[in-house]
Design goal:
single chain, 251 residues, alpha/beta, Hypothetical Protein Ta1238, Chain: A, two-stranded parallel ribbon, globular
């Protein structure tokens, strides 16, 4: 599922003459995004859903509906239990690094959603919104990896790469505090946000294993770079929480 947040709408810099904003049927529009549009008298238009189409890799002399082993090219009439889809009908073992990476992204998304529940219970809607932005980024990464498509440049928290780097490297300038050292006295939400940052790092390491070549080079540098920026984004959210940026305070 894709997500439309208030930060994304602000980044879009909608003109004063904008009267409608159209989204696909599978896009979740956050409450703050809806409020942003409503305050500007912009109508939210939901497009009709279109059926998804998945292409298959033909297997010579075995029929186009046969599964194919990505490593050997062998065809299967039925999918072996120890294998899963790399893409369409192309199979790899479930222990394949690409599949392990997808599992890391899945776990990361689950962690974010649990944090959103806690943020909602803490009456911190801005934190829920920022976490929605983080969640969207992980889903875009997963979609680009599964579909073998380039990952388009995406802003995180409404910031581009340079802005994210600047905010995460210059905490004193932007947040008025020194680089925080995680501590139990910061409270549970801060501890959870710090843990989320480490989960993003784990996903980045998993991506390195999934896309590294034998000669020391790596494929999908777009995904690896975006995960690095995502880590900066979570660190910024961590600092924002500590400095009272979100309603609900530090605890």
């Amino acid at each position: 599922m894709k997500i439309l947040t208030e930060a994304m709408l602000r980044s879009a810099a909608l003109g004063e003459d904008t009267t409608e904003y159209c989204v696909d049927a599978d896009v979740f529009v956050t409450p703050l995004a809806r409020e942003y549009l409503r305050d500007r008298r912009i109508s939210l238009v939901i497009a009709e859903a279109r059926p998804a189409v998945m292409t298959r890799t033909p297997v010579k002399a075995k029929g186009e509906h046969t599964y194919i082993d990505a490593a050997t090219g062998e065809g299967y009439l039925e999918k072996p239990e120890h294998m899963t889809h790399l893409r369409a009908n192309v199979l790899v073992p479930k222990s394949h690094p690409r599949i392990e990476f997808r599992g890391q992204l899945d776990a990361l998304q689950a962690e974010i959603i649990c944090l959103q529940v806690k943020a909602e219970e803490a009456h911190a809607p801005k934190l829920v919104e920022d976490l929605s932005d983080i969640l969207l980024s992980t889903r875009l990464i997963l979609g680009a990896e599964v579909k073998d498509e380039p990952l388009a440049p995406v802003k995180i928290l409404g910031m581009n790469t340079e802005e994210l780097r600047s905010h995460s490297h210059n905490v004193k300038k932007y947040f008025g505090i020194d680089h925080p050292v995680p501590d139990y006295r910061m409270g549970m939400m801060a501890a959870d946000l710090n843990r989320l940052r480490t989960k993003v790092r784990e996903a980045e390491l998993s991506a390195m294993h999934a896309f590294e070549n034998g000669d020391g080079s790596v494929e999908r540098t777009d995904i690896i770079e975006h995960l690095n920026r995502l880590s900066s984004g979570v660190y910024i959210v961590f600092c924002r929480w500590l400095t009272g940026y979100y309603k609900g305070g530090q605890r």
